[in-house]
Amino acid sequence: MAKVAKPLSLITETPQQGFDLAVKLARIGVKTTQPDKEVLFKLREIYANDADSLIACSQVIAIHFQTVAAANNYWRGSK
Amino acid sequence: MAKVAKPLSLITETPQQGFDLAVKLARIGVKTTQPDKEVLFKLREIYANDADSLIACSQVIAIHFQTVAAANNYWRGSK
Amino acid sequence: MAKVAKPLSLITETPQQGFDLAVKLARIGVKTTQPDKEVLFKLREIYANDADSLIACSQVIAIHFQTVAAANNYWRGSK
Amino acid sequence: MAKVAKPLSLITETPQQGFDLAVKLARIGVKTTQPDKEVLFKLREIYANDADSLIACSQVIAIHFQTVAAANNYWRGSK
Amino acid sequence: MAKVAKPLSLITETPQQGFDLAVKLARIGVKTTQPDKEVLFKLREIYANDADSLIACSQVIAIHFQTVAAANNYWRGSK
Amino acid sequence: MAKVAKPLSLITETPQQGFDLAVKLARIGVKTTQPDKEVLFKLREIYANDADSLIACSQVIAIHFQTVAAANNYWRGSK
Fold first, then answer.
1. Number of Cβ pairs closer than 8 Å across A and E?
2. Which domain holds residue D67?
3. Which residue has the higher pLDDT, E56 or A2?
4. Short-list E37, B25, B19, CA closest to A26
5. Is D9 contained in some domain?
6. Which has the least CB within 10 A, A51, C67, F39, F43?
7. How far is C65 from chain B (nearest CA, A)?
8. pLDDT above 70 (res C2)
9. Hey, CA dihedral for F29, D26, C30, C13, is it positive or negative?
10. Do A34 and B16 make contact, defined as CB atoms within 8 angstroms?
11. Does residue C33 contact residue D54 with C-beta atoms inside 8 Å?
């Protein structure tokens, strides 16, 4: 039986999980615009070897991480 | 009878619906500036095959998602 | 008698009016920097047919919409 | 006697004054980095006639306006 | 015994530690997208000698610092 | 005796000091990535004479100023 994907939630237990979620959201944003995996695979060769593209990726992750961190009240209580 | 479009609202039941709304808002921002569908169709060939353009699209979605997530109090209560 | 422009306000009744205001603010930002309508008309030919420019326009609208949405408490109460 | 410049404040009476302040802050940011008026005058010819530069200017104004609007509680009370 | 990395936390004692964390998060964002250290080493030659790339790096740090500062309530209480 | 640098704090007495701090933070972000003063000196010739680079600098300052302004509650109380 195909694994049912967990519904998207912004709540995570730890900041690291929050950062991983931000990375996932940034990538979903790209896949939503370009669903063709072959195209994405070819483009990876380009952006993964381009300094400005990598910095731009990091920026999208930073914006999503800001959202996820606020959603989790910055994990203030967590150990 | 032509379907009456639901008025825009930022309130969604789930984070996934919130993300879909953010994608929609990002695209409305483009269509508001360039309403000509033919032009947009031609341009899609370009940005959908350009790494930096796809990252930039993901960034606009991230900013709108930040707004929609705050509007829904980060869906903290929802299952 | 020349119509007196309504003073700028961030408060709108609906999210759609809020989005329209965000578009207006983004355009005022351009006109404030370049008031010459002829120049703007010529430049429209360029940015309205350039994918990255259209994405950049959508991003400025997204930032203003974030401000307007917060100003209206995300229209939480409104129908 | 040379006019004493009013100390910088983020509080304005109206949203329009708030937007004007955001434009001023965006320009101060450029002048702080490049104080030479002659250089700025020459560069104006370039950015004021470049669509992407004008959009980028509008974005800096949008970020400052977000700050000024929050500072003034979005002028919610004002007429 | 290999040193166990401290789990990621957004809480720091001082603004300087907060800024250092923001720099670290910005870099993790790049490494998450491109884990190959050799590629990153080669790219460093490029972005570290390019004005716009350095400004873009500073911007990603600024976004993360905004998140970390909010997480620490802007270190208002701290000496 | 070498002057001991004051520890970084986001709290300033006035908005102008807050803006100056934002400029300083934007520059620290560049220096953290490229500590070599000679390289930075050479690059200054480029970005300080490039409209888009100057706009990008102003944007990083705007993001840091947003953080510093929030840290100081927008200097609402101050004269």
1. 89
2. 15-75
3. E56
4. B19
5. no
6. F39
7. 8
8. no
9. positive
10. no
11. yes
